[in-house]
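Escalation from tier 1.

The customer reports that the assembly of two entities below gives different structure tokens on two consecutive runs. Tier 1 could not reproduce it. I'm attaching the input and our single run for tier 2 to review.
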Amino acid sequence: MTDRLSQQFAFLQEADRLKGVLRAGRLCDGSRFENSAEHSWHLSLYAMVLADHAPADVDMPRALKMLILHDLVEIDTGDVPIHSQNGTAHASAAQQAAEARAADRIFGLLPADQATEFRCIWEEFEANATPTAIFAKSLDRVQPVLQNLANGGGSWKDYDVTLEQIDRRVGAKIARGLPQVWPWLRAQVAAFFP
Amino acid sequence: MTDRLSQQFAFLQEADRLKGVLRAGRLCDGSRFENSAEHSWHLSLYAMVLADHAPADVDMPRALKMLILHDLVEIDTGDVPIHSQNGTAHASAAQQAAEARAADRIFGLLPADQATEFRCIWEEFEANATPTAIFAKSLDRVQPVLQNLANGGGSWKDYDVTLEQIDRRVGAKIARGLPQVWPWLRAQVAAFFP
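Tier 1 run:
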């Protein structure tokens, strides 16, 4: 019991470092870059709010867990901005290997049963194949769009992004997980790129 | 449908401001004060990790929702540090009224059905009477203890806090929601106050 608590608190203390991982997007007021911990919180809130637009086969409690965990590996690897990836919007093999090593180390701080459970949820998110993961991934694409719209262009300006690139790198994923939401959001984005 | 999405995204954009609300506690590495959005994320992770120490009647999916929502009113009221409250560790009537007005405004941005649902979850947290709320409140007390232990005293030093005050303001709440965890944590705290 004491050992178990020691492991759990060691993991929770290590997780604190996610607050120091900066993303490419700025807050809605444009004042500073967002960190991955507050981003994860915001996505969880997105899941709660947009739940009524999700397909019926999404497991909502599991989606919340997934979004809370999904960026923890960035403590070791940092955030890789979507629009910096030469337009592929896919992680390289080297990046995937680095994230797997990070997952080994970080989830490995937990008691074995929880390490397995959390790793499994994270791998489901990464594989992006179940309805729950597809929903969670789509939220991970929606939130930066709203931020960029709010703060005057944000990472779109920084990376010289075009509407066509947003459709391909972002819109396709959102349309897959939140098919009712993308047409509405796409209209706002299109108005931003006259 | 379009109106509903407009309301939901207006709420989600307003929620972004929680990232600018600073708390009295510092990150585990002591580098800066924590904001209430990343704090809410961390508490959600605490809930997932410490779930196996929670009483059986805690509704864990609802606890996660509760922790994601619990500090949103601080967008209007700011955070009131526990150790600044003249030792009472209870919110004043004026503070409670201000938080109720904030809840009216912020949850009121949502479609009516979600405004009611979210407000209800937040009020359950504040009332601290159900097993789920008691568990969530105890996590809200545990996390700053771990931070202060990690960063060399943090808000305990800032507010000249004694071990007896921690027992009364913090320990009693933790013991109520996580009775197995407090003795372990209390031993670490006592070692910090020789």
